[in-house]
UniProtKB/TrEMBL annotation:
The gene is gltX. Gene3D superfamilies: 1.10.10.350, Glutamate-tRNA synthetase, class I, anticodon-binding domain 1, HUPs. It is an enzyme of class 6 (ligase). A motif ('KMSKS' region) lies at residues 255-259. Belongs to the class-I aminoacyl-tRNA synthetase family. Glutamate--tRNA ligase type 1 subfamily. This is Glutamate--tRNA ligase. GO terms for cellular component: cytosol. It comes from Candidatus Lucifugimonas marina. GO terms for molecular function: ATP binding; glutamate-tRNA ligase activity; tRNA binding; zinc ion binding. Keywords: Aminoacyl-tRNA synthetase, ATP-binding, Cytoplasm, Ligase, Metal-binding, Nucleotide-binding, Protein biosynthesis, Zinc. InterPro entries: aa-tRNA-synth_I_cd-bd, aa-tRNA-synth_I_codon-bd_sub2, aa-tRNA-synth_I_CS, aa_tRNA-synth_I_cd-bd_sf, Glu-tRNA-ligase_bac/mito, Glu-tRNA-synth_I_codon-bd_sub1, Glu/Gln-tRNA-synth, Glu/Gln-tRNA-synth_Ib_cat-dom. CDD domains: GluRS_core.
Length: 503
């Protein structure tokens, strides 16, 4: 199917029963992109008719995820619009009315079969090795019998009459024509005994009432689509275009689940991913622009997105690729933007992955601006800001004695290197990268060590790490006084370790 040229009305219709899965949000994203491309509307509708599974936190997470990913809605809860309410539990009467209309037109009927009877039926079918299905017994109940059951407090549902022969077909925009034989289907419930509709009935009425042109949803719904077509027929309305998007699998080809790591957009936010990178990455889960381009700005995706390039086979979630892409986005950010994004992570408490609690908050933004260029290229996640930059902010670093020696250095040689380094550090001026480098190279020659041997312990002494940004830029940013303190401190650490081992 080529892309619609007139404005679409598309909806993201999550059920607030759990934190939205990345695959679920991916459908929201496709909807949003198509709405932007055609200058149509992106509508959010909360499908909360299963009251027993309603979860307020899930509903909150849905809106937070959309906001974080920048998927602004045109209509929906909290936003309003001409087709509200956009919460199904507030539309209950329209579903009840429609179910009753379908009974009157002979397409549906009240059923008083009890859960126990249904269970017994299923058991019999299982024993006879038949597929479990409702046997249509309610079709033969008279209004009087139903009334009696109602008075007796039995649960009454409404079921749609499914013809026992023939077929229904539809053209899926991704998979093409799909046909289902009706003899495979039983009469299914459209209104439950609590007078709440099932998903099947509710979403069709709402899509119709809200003028939805394209239903973009996960392909797990394909098998329910014949039911939806039958409801449309019974109501005498035209179905929308169906766009069933493929499942998302982990790299091991199993359905993406907790086992594979984070599965919700908000987890990715908390892990230090940028919304633009996640947006870009998620668009490529089941869609491709037709060439090898992977890194695409939102505007480019909106321009290039096309329904006919949605894949009909499952997408693979490659978390390493996501991390790589996040690194690309970080590298492409201005320093100021990066700082703005990093600060909230670095300012969290130490226990939550922020800088040591001893570092005063708010963090000195000007100083961060000075040191950011030293690490900008290397960052892949916003959460890495803390461990990559902590030594610039901490009062002190306390490396372990065994981390101080460089390659092929013993404790004695390391101490000699650090003592010489300390003396130079106290006097060297100006304390600037190029000058420091020249002076320390000369020092290495003087004390007959390879430059790398001298620099290693200095790096660990001043940063606490064996891998850190370029040494002399780092020392200059740490400042002369703190470098002196740290090298001195490291000598102390070495000496006390030597004393302990000599005891
Ligand atoms: N409430 C359904 C879900 O969360 C919506 C499916 C659809 O988009 O029609 O899966």
């Amino acid at each position: 199917m080529t892309n619609p040229t007139s404005p679409v009305r598309v909806r993201y219709a999550p059920s607030p029963t759990g934190i939205p899965h990345i695959g679920n949000i991916r459908t929201a994203l496709f909807c949003w992109v198509l709405a932007q491309q055609t200058e149509g509307q992106f509508i959010v509708r909360i499908e909360d008719t299963d009251r027993s599974r309603y979860d307020a936190d899930a509903e909150k997470a849905i809106f937070e995820s959309l906001e974080w990913l920048g998927l602004g809605l045109d209509e929906g809860p909290g936003k309003g619009g001409n087709y509200g309410p956009y919460v199904q539990s507030e539309r209950q009467q329209t579903y009840i009315d429609a179910a009753h209309r379908l009974i009157e037109s002979g397409h549906a009927y009240f059923d008083d079969t009890t859960p126990e009877q249904l269970h017994a039926l299923r058991e019999r079918q299982r024993a006879a090795k038949q597929p479990p299905r409702y046997d249509g017994r309610g079709r033969h109940r008279s209004p009087e019998e139903i009334e009696e059951s109602r008075k007796a407090g039995l649960p009454i549902t409404v079921r749609l009459k499914v013809p026992d022969h023939g077929s229904v077909s539809f053209v899926d925009a991704v998979r093409g024509k799909i046909t289902f034989e009706l003899k495979e289907l039983d009469d299914f419930v459209i209104l439950k005994s609590d007078e709440m509709p099932t998903y099947h009935l509710a979403h069709i009425l709402d899509d119709q009432a809200m003028g939805i042109t394209h239903v973009i949803r996960g392909d797990e719904w394909i098998s329910s689509t014949p039911r939806h077509l039958l409801i449309h027929q019974a109501l005498g309305i035209e179905p929308p275009e169906y766009v069933h998007v493929p499942l998302i699998l982990g790299k091991d080809k199993a359905k993406l689940s907790k086992r594979h790591g984070a599965t919700s957009a908000l987890e990715y936010r908390d892990l230090g991913f940028l919304p633009d990178a996640v947006f870009n990455f998620m668009c490529l889960l089941g869609w491709s622009p037709g060439d090898d381009t992977e890194v695409m700005a939102r505007e480019e995706i909106v321009k290039r997105f096309s329904i006919d390039r949605i894949n009909d086979s499952p997408a693979t979630f490659d978390s390493e690729k996501l991390e790589w892409m996040n690194g690309v986005y970080i590298r492409n950010m201005s320093e100021d933007d990066l700082i703005t994004q990093l600060l909230p992570f670095m300012e969290r408490s130490e226990a939550e992955g922020g800088l040591p609690d001893s570092v005063a908050r708010p963090i000195d933004r000007d100083y961060l601006k000075q040191v950011i260029p030293l690490v900008h290229e290397r960052l892949k996640l916003l959460t890495e800001g803390t461990e990559t930059l902590d030594f610039f902010f901490a009062d002190n670093v306390n490396p372990a004695a065994e981390d101080l020696p460089g390659r092929k250095m013993d404790a004695e040689m390391t101490e000699r290197a650090l003592v010489a380094a300390l003396e130079l550090c106290k006097d060297v001026s100006p304390f600037e990268p190029e000058h420091l480098e020249a002076e320390y190279r000369a020092l290495a020659e003087k004390i007959e060590m390879k430059p790398g041997q001298l620099f290693s312990p200095i790096r660990v002494a001043t940063t606490g790490k064996s891998f850190a940004p370029p040494l002399f830029d780092t020392m200059a940013a740490i400042g002369q006084e703190r470098c002196v303190e740290r090298i001195d401190n490291a000598i102390g650490i070495l000496r006390s370790a030597a004393a302990t081992s000599a005891d």
